[in-house]
Amino acid sequence: MKLYTLPLADMNATLENVGGKGMSLAKLSRAGIPVPDGFHVTTEAYRQFVTANDLQKKILAALKDADASLPTTLETASATISRFFADGKIPAELVTAITDAYNELNRQSKIENRKSVAVRSSATAEDLPGASFAGQQDTYLNIRGEEAVLNAVKKCWASLWTGRAIAYRARQNIAPESVALAVVVQELVFADAAGVMFTANPIDGDRDEALINAAWGLGEAIVSGAVTPDTLTMDKLKGKLIRRETAEKSVMTVRTESGVSEQPVPDHLKKKEVLNNKQALELTRCGMQIESLYEMPMDIEWTLANKKFAIVQARPITSLPPAWRPPAPNVNYARGSFAEFVPDAVSPLFATLGIPIAEEVTIRIMMKESMHVNIPNCYQFEVINGYVYAGVPREVMGSYMKAMLTQSKKLLATGTERWKVVRQKSRDLAAKWRAQALEALPAAQLIDGTRELFRATAEYYTVVQSGTIAHAMMSEAVFCRFYDGLIKRKDDPQGVTLLFGLENQALRAEKSLFDFASWLREQPELAKAVVQKDTDEIMRLFAAPADGSVWDEFRARLAAHLAEFGHALYNLDFARPLPVDEPAPLVDALKAYLAGTGGDPYQRQREADERREKTSAALTKRLDPLRRKWFLKMFKWAVETGPLREDSIADLGLCHPQIRRLLGELGRRLVKGNVIASAQDVYWLEAKELDTLAVKMDKGETLEDHSGRVTDRKTEWESNRRVVPPSTIPKNTWMSRMMPKHDMQGDTIKGVGSSAGKVTAKACVMLGPEDFNKMRPGDVIVAVTTTPAWTPLFTMASAIVTDIGGPLSHSSIVAREYGIPAVLATGVATRRIQNGQIITVDGGAGTVSLIE
Is the pLDDT of residue 197 over 90? Predict the structure, then answer.
């Protein structure tokens, strides 16, 4: 006997005959979860309808020309199939089964004369852990009467073939002939309020939190995006509210005579909290029960009527970010200053070769050699979900902070001399390896050389971070606070502007590029060619051998610039290229100078010098002896130490060209050995694997193919790049309260305003130098952070927005010198802002508004 309908909680309600949604509701109902009563129209009924109307061949024929990459073809196929269903007749046996089940539901209803139902599609490839299919088929609310129910069921069957459903199945590689559709018919809850609950935080993947969205009326307003709901973040373990964001709710979905419609929310409810704390906790506990039933985080739709909750849908969360759990339970981790130099997800080789060296060097240089203290395991670097975090165990936090405070004066005082020593060491080591003929060296020696070079880089970083960088930041902060608070009058310039235009490595690099452009202007034909030719073509000409043409001088000048400045880092991860590897952004900057859209660094420096000298002279005359003494002392201190920060950062990559050269040689050998497909894939191996392969190469042994691992790791890396790493792990500690909050909802992103001004322009979202070619004059730079290597792009930018950084970071300094707005430390800008989107950057308010 064919089963065309089943009671909602029937034990025979399986995926094959009631679909994903129906199976889930049956499971919930049997477990005692409050679910509105109803029945299933099984997939057998769908198949019977298709067979009776001879539709299967027609459907497959209509899909023949449908292409998931061409939306118009999908809509054409969908419209054709929809007509087939509209014209089809429901066989008499189906009519009887569905109307009998509907009438029985009415007889059993606990609410008198209740004949309104919700008719929901339930596909056999839906609400599954790997393919939620959420929103792909249709739902019809407030359906009353036998004829209306039958029509709604037929519309649900047809919605199996909407354009979006066809495309979704194609992406999931689900064959069209394998699918069928069931329908769930349930009592319609005349909800006072409704919403969605995630039993894990969908923003950062925290499994210990639940996120609740709530709005007035039926839940369709939330699902359709018509209303901004209240958002409540709940601590599941402690059973309490963590955070509440009460929105102004303008519309609500309500029942009407003929269905549902959107209506304005009454004024007294617009700003009122939809759920109180007690109700939110009750709902969270219900969600935890459902999560326990499914043994996985769940996406749950709920309603509230007459102060009672009902669950109308539950599906696994299919796109949950990774959990951010501390590797060691007693350690506080933070994306601190080190993260500014590894802002992106790191490569496997950097994680396994570079990070252990950085940790060892930090402990040795900072604690043992510089501060002469021995605190075991006092400092840790960990890679969590691809991102670098620095951690200090809680039990040694007090000792660590005490050591830092007591030794800080000494570290700052010796910073410049220590920097000069490690800078020279890096230069000497780079020169030593530059002179080596790598082809003749054993593979193991190349890896040893890589470790030696990066150890020098780690020493350099540790020294400048505790010396010149810290000293420059402190001198600027102290001077500006003293000047702006006790010296400045209304018409005087801001203190920070008095530190603009100081000679440093980044400014020298900018001048070098400007001089290059000035020379090009004196070669009209060459300048015209540079402007007109595609940058990629110019790069091919640059790489070509000398041919006696005017391009020879171009090649020589660009090579000279790269020889002096091409080691500037975009990222401390040695998998990421340097300007010397990919100089295309420099050519784009040259084009900007030639087009007149880039500023003159000499003129900017002259104006800064004049402002500094004029203000200093005026204040020297105006101030009383005591304030004049302190002004001149602090001013001299800031002017002398300020350039050291940019000089220190600019030379951080002195060894990186040689690191990449050694690893490139290893990569080429591994390609020959059929281990990897490309020399660049060497960065996707782990240190132990590379060590093992090097030994085998040197012995002439057969090498194992690692290309599959490389592909998997690249996929994982790309996935990690899409998530938002939290500022601290665990989240709710004293450290987290000091960090800016990430805002993943609403039209305004908040950050730290570090350069005043307001600009509305197109966003250029760049995760690294591979995205630099997207930049156009007038765009807003949207990046995780910037380093001196980004400076050529600033000549074209109208504003800057970053995920991390602060008022004294490189991004702030350059933005202020260029006179463009900057908002930093947004936490989420590169994830929330779309490339090409129009945004308003307000550097004074520290906000970024998403316009379109």
Answer: yes
